[in-house]
Design goal:
With 105 residues, this protein is α+β, with helices and mostly antiparallel strands. The chain has one domain (2-104): 2-Layer Sandwich (Tetrahydropterin Synthase, Chain A), CATH 3.30.479.10. It is built from 2 helices and 4 strands, in the order ββαβαβ. The chain has a 4-stranded mixed β-sheet. Its cofactor is Zn(2+). It holds the Pfam family PTPS. Belongs to the PTPS family. QueD subfamily. This is 6-carboxy-5,6,7,8-tetrahydropterin synthase.
């Protein structure tokens, strides 16, 4: 069984390793949408893999670090491509959400 919870946050960034003149090398912002996917067996009592309110509470500290901030200033996001951002979120969440199966940006 798989469930997912989506979050949206606003952030600015620039990609430091693109060729000179590339538009992504300039400071710009996005409305990022993140989907956190969880896979596992249903709890026979609750019928859940994980309570959605728990997922929200676990993601909240990351959300607060990402929302309305400059991603390049966050350790681990110095080159904040979507792929690097997904990997960073995975690394932060996996110890807290063992059911984590995918991150989608």
């Amino acid at each position: 069984m798989e469930i997912f919870k989506e979050f949206t946050f606003e952030s600015a960034h620039r990609l430091p390793h693109v060729p000179d003149g590339h538009k992504c090398g300039r400071l710009h912002g996005h409305s990022f949408k993140v989907a956190i996917h969880l896979s596992g067996d249903l709890d026979p009592h609750t019928g859940w893999i994980r309570d959605f309110s728990e997922i929200k509470a676990i993601f909240k500290p990351l959300y607060e670090r990402l929302d309305h901030n400059y991603l390049n200033d966050i350790p681990g996001l110095e080159n904040p491509t979507s792929e690097v951002l997904a990997k960073w979120i995975w690394t932060e969440l996996k110890p807290l959400l063992p059911e984590l199966s995918a991150i989608r940006i």
